[in-house]
Amino acid sequence: QNSMVLSAAIFITLIGLIVYLHFVKIDQESLLVIGSLGIQVTSSYASGKESTTFIEMGQVKDVVINEAIHMQKVIYYLCILLQDPEDPQGVSEVVPLFQSSKPRLDCLIEVYKSCQEILEQRKTVPQSS
């Protein structure tokens, strides 16, 4: 009886660990910005699974560093502001980046500057229809 309960507990723990590694534990996050196409956000999980999201450059209004207060400390994170299709001056959605890795502010500033350079190039180059 006790060995059966112990076996079931070990089995459930192993299943929980596999689910955690496959769906929750993110090892690496990357951001690829191509001015003429868009922004690709990739998350690599501990199990080897990858999740990729692509945002067309036409939807991107801006990239900003946002701050939040969490557990009595200020944390910074990079966000993509998506343009509202009905109101060109408005923002329809805020997409946070690097939520699992939580890089330091100085790292975020470097990524922010690179993103802004690409966004500025896109604004200065006339777009062909």
From TrEMBL:
List UniProt keywords, sorted A-Z. Answer: Membrane, Transferase, Transmembrane, Transmembrane helix
- The residues forming a coiled coil are none
The pathway this protein participates in, as annotated, is:
Glycolipid biosynthesis; glycosylphosphatidylinositol-anchor biosynthesis
GO MF terms held by the record: transferase activity
Q: Which stretches are transmembrane?
A: 6-24
Q: Name one GO cellular component term.
A: glycosylphosphatidylinositol-N-acetylglucosaminyltransferase (GPI-GnT) complex
Which ranges carry the Phosphatidylinositol N-acetylglucosaminyltransferase subunit H conserved domain?
A: 30-99
| Protein family per UniProt | Belongs to the PIGH family.
Name by which UniProt lists this protein: PIGH acetylglucosaminyltransferase
